[in-house]
């Protein structure tokens, strides 16, 4: 009888543990489904497909024949980041234009800012103008086509951020830390030289300052890249998981991209180590007035140097054929 009682107690404990384990599994499954559902809805809101023939030809991560990208067939890819100041009744202009190339084999990312006043041919219009006007003429599509021709590399993806909502994104990840190289005041805030913490409002003021910077727009570009790198670093940290709802809400309201949910998942799984080594490049030019309009003129040798470095990072030295 005692043996049976002990056996029954043991069976009862095992059954209870089994039930608890089952409940934990069910709870975890519901939680994971909720996360997936929330992410899916946010990505659906952000998604804006565009025509990318160069990406199709390159068979990049978005066009792998398998459902998932394996370690063996990972390929480099490029992203155009557009920071847009939209105006009521106007598309606005892409005052921030940053190209990122990601190489999974080298585990590195290169980031280069294009000065907004850069004079170049606007693809689809056929005349020279400031490169940030491409967005006003034809949105993300024309910006991508113009940047492809200007840098002579294929642009696989774009991420367009509403700069007015950029502060929401910074707040959602819990703020960022940057190494400030210049003491200045902007937007009611004082920024001291050295390592500083920025919330959303401060980050927006920090990246917008230009007039007090002896390097002008080039200094502002450097601050923009600093904040973007800070957001990337925070986004891949464990602490960001606890802020998932805030991050998704901020992204869905302020971001447009042609990346799909599967592509984002592939990048997170197979390319995340490349974000640990972000190398910043700089396009430098000279200011000039043409027909009473200010432009930045990038010397051909300067442009060629950046083109070569990005092409090598993408593993492709062949030129890009742009639309007329």
UniProtKB/TrEMBL annotation:
It holds the Pfam family LytR_cpsA_psr. Its EC number is 2.7.8.-. Its main location: membrane. Signal peptide: none annotated. One of its GO terms (cellular component) is plasma membrane. NCBIfam families: lytR_cpsA_psr, PRK09379.1. This is Polyisoprenyl-teichoic acid--peptidoglycan teichoic acid transferase TagU. It comes from Mesobacillus boroniphilus.
């Amino acid at each position: 009888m005692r043996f049976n009682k002990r056996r029954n107690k043991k069976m009862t404990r095992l059954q209870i543990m089994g039930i608890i384990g089952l409940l934990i599994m069910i709870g975890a499954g519901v939680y994971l489904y909720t996360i997936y559902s929330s992410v899916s809805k946010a990505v659906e809101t952000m998604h804006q497909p565009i025509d990318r023939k160069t990406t199709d030809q390159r068979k990049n991560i978005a066009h792998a024949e398998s459902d998932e990208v394996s370690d063996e067939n990972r390929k480099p890819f490029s992203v155009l980041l557009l920071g847009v100041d939209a105006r009521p009744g106007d598309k606005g202009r892409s005052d921030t234009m940053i190209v990122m190339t990601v190489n999974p084999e080298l585990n590195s990312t290169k980031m280069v800012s294009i000065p907004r006043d850069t004079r170049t041919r606007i693809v689809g219009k056929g005349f020279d103008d400031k490169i940030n006007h491409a967005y006003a003429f034809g949105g993300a599509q024309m910006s991508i086509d113009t940047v492809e021709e200007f840098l002579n590399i294929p642009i696989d993806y774009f991420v367009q951020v509403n700069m007015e909502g950029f502060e929401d994104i910074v707040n959602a990840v819990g703020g960022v830390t940057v190494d400030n190289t210049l003491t200045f005041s902007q937007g009611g805030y004082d920024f001291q030289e050295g390592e500083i913490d920025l919330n959303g409002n401060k980050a927006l003021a920090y990246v917008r300052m230009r007039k007090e910077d002896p390097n002008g727009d080039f200094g502002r570009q450097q601050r923009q890249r600093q904040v973007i790198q800070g957001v990337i670093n925070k986004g891949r940290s464990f602490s960001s998981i606890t802020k998932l709802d805030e991050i998704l809400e901020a992204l869905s309201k302020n971001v447009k991209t042609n990346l799909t949910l599967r592509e984002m998942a592939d990048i997170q799984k197979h390319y995340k180590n490349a974000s640990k080594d972000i190398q910043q490049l700089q396009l430098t030019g000279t200011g000039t007035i043409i027909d009473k309009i200010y432009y930045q003129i990038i010397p051909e040798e300067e442009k060629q140097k950046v083109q070569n470095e990005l092409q090598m990072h993408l593993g492709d030295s062949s030129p890009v054929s742009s639309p007329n």
